[in-house]
Design goal:
Layout (H helix, E strand, L loop, with lengths): L9 H7 L8 E4 L9 E3 H17 L7 E5 L4 H12 L3 E4 L6 H11 L3 E4 L4 H10 L4 E4 L7 H6 L16 E9 L2 E9 H14 L7 E4 L6 H13 L3 E4 L5 H7 L5 E4 L1 H8 L14 E4 L6 H11 L4 E6 L3 E5 L16 E2 L4 E5 L12 E6 L11 H7 L6 E9 L5 E6 L4 E3 L2 E3 L1 H9 L4 E11 L3 E10 L7 H9 L10 E5 L12 H8 L6
Parallel strand pairs: 1-10, 3-4, 3-5, 5-6, 9-10, 9-11, 11-12, 12-13, 23-24
Antiparallel strand pairs: 1-2, 7-8, 13-14, 14-15, 16-17, 17-18, 18-19, 20-21, 22-23
Helix pairs in contact: 2-3, 4-5, 7-8, 10-11
The chain binds malonyl-coenzyme A (MLC) and adenosine monophosphate (AMP).
Malonyl-coenzyme A binds next to helix 8 and strand 13.
GO molecular function: medium-chain fatty acid-CoA ligase activity
Family: Belongs to the ATP-dependent AMP-binding enzyme family.
InterPro entries: AMP-bd_C, AMP-bd_C_sf, AMP-binding_CS, AMP-dep_synth/lig_dom, ANL_N_sf
């Protein structure tokens, strides 16, 4: 138990790791061909204090939700750090989300503050005010907007608010197999314990430089990458968006790179990726989606580096990792390595009994990194935990005799596309509401760039002449672009088993060659 004097605020731990030289560069966000744009550690400390003071001035109840849908920028990181400092709960939202999605998140989370891009202020503020949000600010990726304008009048000194380890730091919405998204509640202790384990396990050291190329509204870019660099006092080379050419050009200045498999696939497609380009890299890490063994091998052949694959999720942050140090074992392609120190991981059969090594079953986990539950969904939370406190991940896998974990599938009906999760149930729900649609089934099929993409198969109501492309175009108005199936087929009937359930495995089989490389 923490005592009243120990502040478990995550920001306090990150701040304590800043280097002694506060004028050193913490983040270099210079765009190719652009003016130098660098932030020192002192800039991070002072500017996040100003935003934290702005939040304080609003006199919000403790642990208010601060919902943020803005383009990736260093200022968005400052807002995240400020939220931690001020003792509120950060709620990041993918910029691809459309009004129906934002409406749900804001209605469900009831944020006290919403921060959006200046261009979206009209529709976002309407949704927010309707949901009872009192404060809506704007933040552009060029430092424009009311958030920074208001913060510029605030003091640049701020003591992090006292927080206990199990106080909430962030809520990440993850879609559900039955449609509606659930807010995974992560505490200061969840995030800090995971960041500390990864710092040690991945051998973060003095002089490390992280090339930060991922979005910052999900676990990978916001926690694994950002916390990794901050907790090590390491400089980040900041990319507002991933571009393989720019990434390869920046690699020689970096020692650590983290990406979803699509980032590796896209860099491999560029001949500029050579051994020389990666000469200073210490560690390449992949996660969020399965890394194909071909990508693992091609990367090894081209660069001489063995990608370290790890496995995690929004509810748990990181769970397993291939070893960094040779003495801990080899990095095995196709596996996600060993449970991280402090993580209990077991594989169980349908009755919940642990299976012997090598056998396949549901993956369950327990540890200080496992979340506090789903926001305002106590029943859903209870369903997802076992009596002895293990969280049911919904992933299916096995652990071999040497302890390596392999993910072989998912019991949840989920498509992972370019590292983003897409839940067929959500897409089908929207499609089924469209005029003329009797029923739909969305399945994931292999894709050379995104790993997997969605394909929709539709049946029309009697007499309706469905146009698949027109339906997809209409869907775009309602859902984030990465969720839109890449193809739609109108058919007479869907394959069903004797219980009448649609046999998605047959649809996947039928369409698996659609995007063959
Ligand atoms: C973009 N598009 C996608 C897509 N991303 N389609 C399917 N899946 C995706 N992931 C489509 C858009 O709809 C659009 O199509 C077209 O591609 C161009 O859009 P874009 O935004 O310009 O794409 P691009 O910049 O190329 O983005 C690709 C990407 C991005 C791979 C860089 O998807 C990305 O950053 N992925 C990383 C996701 C991530 O960080 N996941 C971590 C989750 S945390 P159209 O037709 O609309 O024009 C997690 C836990 C863990 O899972 O373990 O880490
Ligand atoms: P999210 O809910 O977006 O956090 O996604 C988490 C899911 O991504 C996990 O439950 C896994 O299904 C998947 N995932 C993450 N890392 C890996 C990996 N290395 N290999 C396979 N699947 C992964």
């Amino acid at each position: 138990m923490s005592t009243a004097t120990e502040n478990q605020n995550l920001y306090a731990a990150l701040r304590a790791a800043f280097p002694a030289d506060l004028d050193a560069v913490a983040i270099d966000a210079t765009e190719p061909g652009g003016q130098p744009l660098r932030y020192s550690w002192r800039d991070l400390e002072r500017a996040s204090a100003m935003v934290a003071n702005l939040l304080d001035s609003l006199e919000l109840p403790p642990a208010s939700r601060i919902a943020v849908q803005v383009e990736k920028s260093v200022e968005a990181v400052l807002l995240y750090l400020a939220t931690l400092r001020a003792g509120h709960v950060f709620l990041p939202l993918n910029t691809a989300y459309q009004s129906a999605e934002i409406g749900y998140f804001v209605g469900n989370a009831e944020p006290a503050v919403v921060v959006c891009s200046p261009a979206n202020h009209g529709w976002v503020s309407k949704i927010a005010f309707k949901a009872g949000t009192r404060h809506v600010f704007t933040l552009g990726d060029d430092r424009s907007g009311t958030l920074l304008e208001r913060a510029s009048h605030c003091s640049d000194q701020h003591a992090p608010v006292q927080r206990a380890a199990d106080d909430l730091a962030a809520i990440l919405y993850t879609s559900g197999t039955t449609g509606r998204s659930k807010g995974a509640m992560l505490s200061h202790g969840n995030l800090l314990s995971n960041a500390r384990v990864l710092k040690d396990y991945w051998g973060w050291k003095e002089g490390d430089v992280l090339l930060h190329a991922l979005p910052i509204f999900h676990v990978h870019g916001l926690f694994v990458a950002l916390h990794g660099a901050l907790l090590n006092g390491s400089k980040m080379l900041w990319m507002a968006r991933f571009d393989p050419k720019v990434a390869i050009a920046k690699l020689p200045e970096a020692t650590v790179f983290m990406g979803v498999p699509t980032l590796y696939v896209r860099m491999l497609a560029d001949p500029a990726l050579t051994k020389d380009a990666v000469r200073n890299i210490r560690l390449f890490i992949s996660g969020s989606a399965p890394l194909l063994i071909e990508t693992f091998k091609d990367w090894q052949a081209r660069t001489g580096h063995t990608i370290l694959e790890r496995y995690g999720m929004s509810e748990t942050a990181m769970l397993t990792s291939n070893p960094y140090r040779a003495e801990d074992g080899e990095r095995r392609g196709g596996t996600v390595g060993f449970p991280l120190p402090g993580v209990d991981l077991r594989v169980v059969d349908d009755a919940g009994q642990a299976v012997p090594p090598g056998e396949i079953g549901g993956i369950q986990v327990r540890g200080p990194n496992v979340f506090q539950g789903y926001w305002r969904m106590p029943e859903k939370t209870a369903e997802e935990f076992t009596a002895d406190g293990f969280f049911k991940t919904g992933d299916v896998g096995r652990v071999d005799a040497a302890g390596y974990v392999t993910i072989v599938g998912r019991s949840k009906d989920l498509i992972i596309s370019g590292g983003y999760n897409v839940y067929p149930a959500e897409i089908e729900g929207f499609l089924n509401e469209m005029p003329g649609v009797a029923e739909s089934a969305v399945v994931g099929v292999p894709h050379p760039d995104f790993g997997e993409v969605g394909v929709a198969v539709l049946i029309g109501k009697p007499g309706a002449a469905l146009d698949g492309d027109a339906l997809l175009a209409a869907l775009r108005q309602q859902l984030a672009n990465f969720k839109i199936p890449k193809r739609a087929f109108v058919v007479e009937s869907l394959p069903r088993n004797t219980m009448g359930k649609v046999q998605k495995n047959l649809l996947r089989e039928q369409h698996k060659g659609l995007f063959a490389a």
